Amino acid sequence: MTDEPLPQALSAEINTVLDDAGVHADRRLVMRMLRTAILLGEDGTDRLDLKIASAALAEMRDAFRLFAPYSGVPKVTVFGSARTRQDDPLYLQARDVAAALAAEGWMVVTGAGPGIMQAAAEGAGPALSLGVSIRLPFEEKANIVVEATDHVVAMKYFFTRKLMLMKESRGFICLPGGFGTLDEMFELLTLQQTGKAEPMPIVLLDEQGGTFWNGLKRFIDEDLAPTGVISDGDFDRVVITDSVAEATATVTGFWRNYDSLRWVGDTLVLRLRATPTDAEIDELNERFAALLSSGRIERSDPRQPEVADGDLLDLPRLALHLDQRRVGELFRLIRAVNDLGSAPAQ
Q1: Which one of 20, 139, 216, 274 is at 20 to 30 Å from 121 when CA atoms are compared?
Q2: Residue 84: burial class (beta carbons within 10 Å; 0-12, 13-18, 19+)
């Protein structure tokens, strides 16, 4: 990331503009964006490239504003085919799982299109639905559920849309779909495997008795894992089911005890809802020693940067030195933490 300085006089003028606009919070970050925009102009950047950068930033601002009022509400994103008909059993599965999660207080995020997306929005209802649509020649507007509300934002680019479909959610449910659905699912898995996104529950939901996802699992087990292009167990983070109840429990149960994580230097801090016992910590160390680069998993008080930020100071913590090459396996430790006897009831 470039931090090329601007001339002092120009920086002073920009600061004056920010003062006049009343921009004070996170001012250095706003200055960095403005500096980058100016440098793009100085570089003689191609007009098309400037249009891409400008539209992407504007779209992200629109999406941030859509999600901001609901920052404290847990969200689940539902992916699936836009071509699924209303009489298809998959349509009913999407509607039912969205309704079940909405009944638990979750908002449902979709791509705002027809098919599975409309089914999930119907299940959650307009008040608990958020849509991030894509402008396509053959899809001129969002589905009727979110289109009648202000709970939708339209995107020109798939990459900004995918960012917003994933960034805010604490769980993901994928129903059968085509290239777009599979693209979204594989990006989720890539972000999880590489540690670029925090561990989240991922459910592949089929119709009752359906086999759509079984073929994918067979391909992964028989063709990908044996060749070494992925690690054994990389797909274990995914739950394949044809049960709405199991899909719902998988998403909500991931947050039974685990709350969040934060890196403080080279220490990973897991924030929990209940304090593990000494015996439980010993068991975690025995089971997950291979994940550690050094030391043990230990209880921890909030670290100084957490205290400075007032970051969930009332929650108990576990601290560990995670082997960065094993970051994709962190979901296993989180599942074990959720299964501890000291964890709150589901």
Answers
A1: 216
A2: buried
Q: What is the mean pLDDT of residues 40-46?
A: 93
Quickly list DSSP for 260-280.
EEEEETTEEEEEESSPPPHHH
CA pair distance 58, 62, nearest whole angstrom: 6
pLDDT of residue 146: 65
Rounded to a whole number of angstroms, the CA Rg of the chain reads 22
Give ∠ CA 181-330-184 in degrees, rounded to 5: 10
What tokens does 242 get? 């044809």
Average pLDDT over residues 17-28: 90
Ranges for all domains in the chain classified under CATH 3.40.50.450: 70-253
Q: How far, in Å, CA of 333 to CA of 41, rounded?
A: 47
Bridge-based pairing of strands 107-110 and 75-79 is parallel
* Predicted pLDDT at 128: 95
Whole-structure pTM value: 0.91
- What is the DSSP track for 316-338? -EEEEEE-GGGGGGHHHHHHHHH
Task: Quote the percentage of the chain above a pLDDT of 70.
Answer: 95
Does the domain at 70-253 match CATH 3.40.50.450? Answer given as yes
Distance of alpha carbon 229 from alpha carbon 319, whole angstroms = 31
| Long-range Cβ contact pairs of 265-269 (< 8 A, separation 24 or more) | 266/321, 267/303, 267/319, 267/320, 267/321, 268/319, 268/320, 268/321, 268/322, 269/300, 269/303, 269/306, 269/317, 269/318, 269/319
